[in-house]
Design goal:
alpha+beta, Ribosomal Protein S5, domain 2, Ribosomal Protein S8, Chain: A, domain 1, DNA repair, DNA_mismatch_repair_CS, ATP-dependent DNA damage sensor activity, MutL/Mlh/PMS, mismatched DNA binding
């Protein structure tokens, strides 16, 4: 091998760039859709064959590209989106580097047709391996149609890392869902092998888009949040604590129209729920954040999904506070009947929820023409929602007006793709999807997500509307917790109570755990700056890297009353502790506070006190199979009603559930559901 330094060829540099930009078919779909959005498209069709490996076709009605600029679009670092250094720090478009098209072209075959408004003719290009082989005029209405075929045909090593077709299709479904949520004003239509996977109306209604992706029942249990300060404007939806998933993959954060991955923002969303979430469970959330482009740097990663935020701490604090305050307004008693399905096992329900972003649900919901009524807070069937799809295909398709594959099996009888846990091999670190198993027979059977088979979707149902209005009513805590009449206990574990609204079942351990938690949190008391000398000083030893960090951040520890004296190279001695530390746990408390600093970079007395209160409340609460007499049970309910949050134990489990009168009569067939 020669040691001489040589300049790489353009083709090789494009293939190297493709390794960063084009990881899999989903990467191609993402880049092409983002280009369409930047071109001010209002309708985007995505047609796939073999999960995009054989063919990806994206059609839009955007501004198009002039004939003189068409070839330049495939030159590396050629772009119309930035022109100066200042533009780089005020990026408002999704793309800006000019890398996507040349990178995609270098590892595939591309057919490219485009035309601008009122142009006498369009432009047709054919490229293979990044080289333009044909350039001729074409007849095309305004917009762009790009077909990517035989992806990675000239880089077989990349094909080794491609997963199964179901896995690749799931990645594509996920990214299209995220883009649809980021741009509800754009109509998206995703079709694979003739089967429609997603269709959104593009009317700008975010909640309607969420219903098409997550399902109507989930969308009904999402609450709107809004907040604003001098730097940030937040708008979005979060689910009630009773609707959760097993991973953070259902948290979508959107900054200036760009879906991003940001651990701090995801953590802020979860922190906003506090103890209302069960351990290991996460909400569904779609959060839109608007800020000055100067405060966000998107030029830190090839995919542009990871960004650097200025004033991140202020933003996360605002987000957590907004969610926390919004949930305080809610009646958080789960409706038991809504969570019961006497025809299905719980394990089957869990499997059905795990498909990334539930994008298969969109097939069922959007084909019905789903629409959302903001005044009633409900959904209804709109037969006209999907009609523009056909007109759009006629408008921007080829000369015959037909788009191959689009009119395939897209009827309601179309098969729903299945994704088995063996085939859906998603890497948790590289993917925002979950590994799932979803059986086709169950999907077809699970008709409650469709409007036609679920009476709760009818806006004329007075009982359903009454329930929604009751939940939406904002009341103080003492008014939100119902007046209960206790009348019995089951198995020494559950208490039964009633009122005019129906039956309530209370978990006595969870109830006392909540009561004790709030009691111990108060008992720990206000943090005092008073110190108490230790009879025997504590010596702490740490590795050299941790010791250096502790020396640098000693002021943070001193702020919570921990004073470290150097005692050798990597050792410290502590001679006193704050008086509020639990008696007999002084050394353990000091070590926990220091570990918190080393792990998170901060030390929070509030978090430590909360953790201690949770531990003490759990250990000292009544357990299952412990029978209470009437006076003890009534006293427990009285104390529960006085709690700041009587609806969840500190671990997030529900304290009580509710069967309203309508639910009881329906379960005993005293009321027949309409058909």
């Amino acid at each position: 091998m020669s040691d001489k330094i040589l300049e790489l060829s353009e083709r090789l540099t494009n293939q190297i760039a493709a390794g960063e930009v084009v990881e899999r078919p989903a990467s191609v779909v993402k880049e092409l859709i983002e280009n369409a959005i930047d071109a001010n498209s209002t309708q985007i069709n995505i047609l796939l064959e073999e999960a995009g490996l054989k063919k990806i076709q994206v059609i839009d009605n955007g501004t198009g590209i002039s004939p003189e600029d068409a070839e330049s679009a495939f030159k590396r670092h050629a772009t119309s989106k930035i022109h100066s250094r200042d533009d780089l720090f005020r990026i408002r478009t999704l793309g800006f580097r000019g890398e996507a098209l040349p990178s995609i072209a270098s590892v595939s075959e591309i057919t490219f047709e485009t035309a601008t408004e009122n142009a006498s003719q369009g432009t047709y290009l054919y490229l293979k391996g990044g080289k333009i082989e044909e350039n001729q005029p074409s007849v095309l209405r305004q917009g762009t149609k790009i077909i990517v075929e035989n992806l990675f045909y000239n880089t077989p090593a990349r094909l080794k890392y491609v997963k199964t077709l179901q896995t690749e299709l799931a990645h594509i479904g996920d990214i299209v869902n995220r883009l649809a949520l980021s741009h509800p004003n754009v109509a998206f239509h995703l079709v694979h092998e003739g089967n429609q996977m997603l269709s959104t109306s593009g009317n700008g209604d975010l909640k309607q888009t969420m219903a098409g992706i997550y399902g109507v029942q989930t969308a009904k249990k999402m609450r709107e949040i809004q907040a604003e300060d001098l730097d940030f404007k937040i708008h979005g939806y979060v689910t009630l604590p009773e609707v959760t998933r097993a991973t953070r993959n259902y948290l979508s954060t959107i900054v200036n129209g760009r879906y991003i991955k940001n651990f701090a923002l995801n953590k802020a969303i979860v922190n906003g729920y506090g103890s209302k979430l069960m351990v290991g469970r996460f909400p569904i959330a779609v959060i839109e954040i608007e800020m000055d482009p100067l405060l966000v740097d998107v030029n830190v990663h090839p995919t542009k999904q990871e960004v650097r935020l200025s004033k991140e701490q202020e933003l996360t604090t605002l987000l957590s506070k907004t969610i926390n305050e919004r949930l305080r307004e809610e009646n958080l008693i789960p409706n038991a009947a809504e969570n019961l399905d006497f025809n299905k096992k719980v394990s089957e329900q869990e499997k059905a929820q795990q498909l990334s972003m539930d994008f298969e649900e969109s097939t069922k919901n959007e084909k019905k023409g789903l629409a959302y009524d903001k005044q009633t807070g409900d959904f209804y069937v709109n037969e006209t929602v999907n009609k523009p799809v056909e007109n759009f295909v006629d408008k921007v398709g080829d000369e015959s007006g037909k788009v191959e594959g689009f009119y395939g099996n897209t009827s309601e009888e179309a098969d729903i793709s299945t994704f088995s846990s063996q085939e859906n091999e998603l890497d948790s670190e590289n993917s925002s999807l979950e590994t799932v198993e979803k059986e086709q027979a169950y999907l077809k059977k699970n008709a409650q997500e469709s409007i036609a088979d679920h009476p709760e979707f009818d806006v004329h149902q007075k009982e359903n509307r009454r329930l929604m209005e009751k939940i939406m009513t904002e009341k103080p805590t003492e008014e939100r917790f119902p007046q209960l009449d206790y009348f019995g206990q089951m198995h020494g574990t559950y208490l039964f109570a009633q009122n005019t609204e129906g039956l309530y079942i209370i978990d006595q351990h969870a109830a006392q755990e909540r009561i004790k938690y709030e009691y111990f949190r108060r008992q720990i008391g206000e943090v005092s700056t008073d110190l108490q000398e230790l009879l025997v000083p504590i010596v702490l030893d740490y590795p050299n890297d941790d010791a250096l960090r502790l020396k640098e951040q000693a002021d943070l520890l001193e702020g919570v009353g921990i004073y470290l004296e150097e005692f050798g190279a990597n050792s410290f001695i502590v001679r006193s502790h704050p008086t509020w530390y639990p008696q007999g746990q002084e050394e353990e408390t000091i070590r926990e506070m220091i570990d918190m600093l080393l792990t998170t970079g901060e030390v929070s007395v509030k978090k430590f006190r909360e953790k201690s209160a949770i531990m003490m409340s759990c250990k000292r609460s009544i357990k299952a199979n412990h029978y209470l007499n009437d006076s003890q049970a009534r006293a427990l309910l009285t104390d529960l009603a006085a709690c700041e949050n009587p609806f969840n134990c500190p671990h997030g489990r529900p304290v009580l559930i509710h069967f309203d009168n309508y639910d009881m009569e329906r379960m005993f067939k005293r009321i027949q559901d309409p058909h």
